[in-house]
Amino acid sequence: MSRNHIFALIGHPFDDTWRMEPTSFAARSGERARPLFHTRSRSSYGERNSDPDLTRHMSITRDNVSNVIKQELSANLAPFLGEIEAKVLSVLETQPQPSSIKRVTTDKTITGRDRDRENDHIARIEHLEMKVQITASEKEAQDEMIVNANNEKMLLNQKLRTAEKKAKKLESILLQAGLAPTGLDDDKVYKGFETLRFSILQLVKQICTNRNATVKDNIYSKLSDEAKDYYVMAIVANALYKHCFSHEKIYFGFDQTADNFLVQFYSNVSNHSKVSQQDMADWRIRTCLLSQSWDDSGHYLRLKAKDLAENIIWKKLNPFMPNARLGLMDKNVVQKDAKEKLAGICEQALRLALMFNSSKVEYTWAHDGQVELDPARVQPVGSLGYKNMQECGEGAYMVVFGGVVKGGGVQGKLAEDPTHLSDTLVIFGPFGEE
After folding, report:
1. Residues 293 and 175 sit within 8 Å (Cβ to Cβ)
2. 271 and 160 belong to one structural domain
3. Which of 36, 41, 239, 255 is the most buried (most CB within 10 A)?
4. Residue 122 counted as domain residue
5. pLDDT tens-digit readout, 204-257
6. pLDDT in tens, 96-146
7. Where are the coiled-coil regions (predicted)?
8. Residues 193, 214 within the same domain
9. d(CA 267, CA 264)
10. Are residues 165 and 230 in the same domain?
11. How does residue 39 score in pLDDT terms, banded at 50, 70 and 90?
12. Contacts of residue 324, Cβ cutoff 8 Å, sequence gap at least 6
């Protein structure tokens, strides 16, 4: 676009008159015309720029120029771009084609990979859906099995309740007829006495810590500290045997008054020459079984255990208790705890005695020294010199805690091939020397 063209658009053709100031004033004043550009002083130029009409005229001129340029670009740009595109296409057509062929081939290869990957995903999804279906089927089958199992459990529980009722009825018949099981569970008997032995020893170690106790015999002072614990343990075991297991103190399981009467009655009748010992044994078994039905809660058994612990055995342990001065409250707390544990031990012993007295097969706690011991079932827990039963001979040992012996033979009598179910703990002598 030429300069003349632009000035023509704004209404003022370009000529030499634009180079000079208007001549009207110059002609009147007789002055020579001055150039328009770069000749005015700074102050006079500022005065012209401050003319409002000129400013508006210049703004209109600028807008017209901008619009003309946009129109020219719009009219001429499209053909120009078309020519460039035509030339580019002509150049591309003259170039060799291997690159384009290679590009197309590459595109096909990528498409194939994508298709394979998509197929793999589809196959995996189908596999997972199949697994879900299988899992759902298995869960449904398991739910059905659980329902069936619950139904079977209900039926079994119902049958069990029916069987228990029949068993109780049969037990009642056995009680009335005096027919009890022919023997006890040997493992249960063994574990019962092992628990009793452990409980006694733990209590002795807890409360009987006075190693300098004064004892009538000369054995205690000669023993080691560990053997002294077993010596005190023997004192507790002796009392339990005397009041629970001995023939003079048979425990029938009733209250104190009834038991005292039954013990006296049993002793008197058993000593009668015309009374069968088997009949007395059957009567004893039947009576003990009846007491278990009568005192099914064990109330009277616990009362007897408490009386035995506090009024008999506790007094025997006093010399072995520490002399340390404790506050009254502390002493009462310690004694209360110890007496409760001792009562629990007595309760264990009474239950074991009642088991023995309810069995047709004879059992005994070999603690009184009257049962001949098997040397192979003797366990020494202390010694004053002897090393084995052969050296001890007859009576030169002290039974600490007797073993359990079960009767043998057809009738289960202790006199017929007895069996030792547990070891007997002993302290070897000699004891006769002062």
Report:
1. yes
2. no
3. 239
4. yes
5. 999 888 888 888 888 888 999 899 999 999 999 999 999 999 888 888 888 889
6. 655 444 444 444 455 677 787 888 888 889 888 888 888 888 888 888 889
7. 146-173
8. yes
9. 5
10. no
11. very low
12. none
94, 116, 137 - which closes a domain: 94
Does residue 106 sit in the same domain as residue 248?
no
148 & 191 share domain: no
Number of domains in the chain: 3
- Residue 396 is predicted with a pLDDT of 82
Would 433 be classed as within a structural domain? no
In a domain, 236, yes or no: yes
Q: Residues 38, 88: one domain?
A: yes
HEC string for the chain: CCHHHHHHHCCCCCCHHHHECCHHHHHHHCCCCCECCCCCCHHHHHHHHCCHHHHHHHHHHHHHHHHHHHHHHHHHHHHHHHHHHHHHHHHHHHCCCHHHHHHHHHHHHHHHHHHHHHHHHHHHHHHHHHHHHHHHHHHHHHHHHHHHHHHHHHHHHHHHHHHHHHHHHHHHHHHHHCCCCCCCCHHHHHHHHHHHHHHHHHHHHHHCCCCCCCCCCCCHHHCCHHHHHHHHHHHHHHHHHHHHHCHHHCCCCCCHHHHHHHHHHHHHHHCCCCCCHHHHHHHHHHHHHHHHHHCCCCHHHHHHHHHHHHHHHHHHHHHHCCCCCCCHHHHHHHHHHHHHHHHHHHHHHHHHHHHHHCCCCCEEEECCCCCCCCHHHEEEEEECCCCCHHHHCCCCEEEEECEEEECECCCCECCCCCEECCCEEEEECCCCCC
Judgement on whether residues 30 and 131 belong to the same structural domain of the protein = no
Q: Which domain holds residue 143?
A: 101-177
Q: Same structural domain for residues 202 and 271?
A: yes
Q: Which two tokens stand for residue 287?
A: 């009576």
Mean pLDDT of 283-289: 88
Structure tokens that stand for 75 in this block? 């009219």
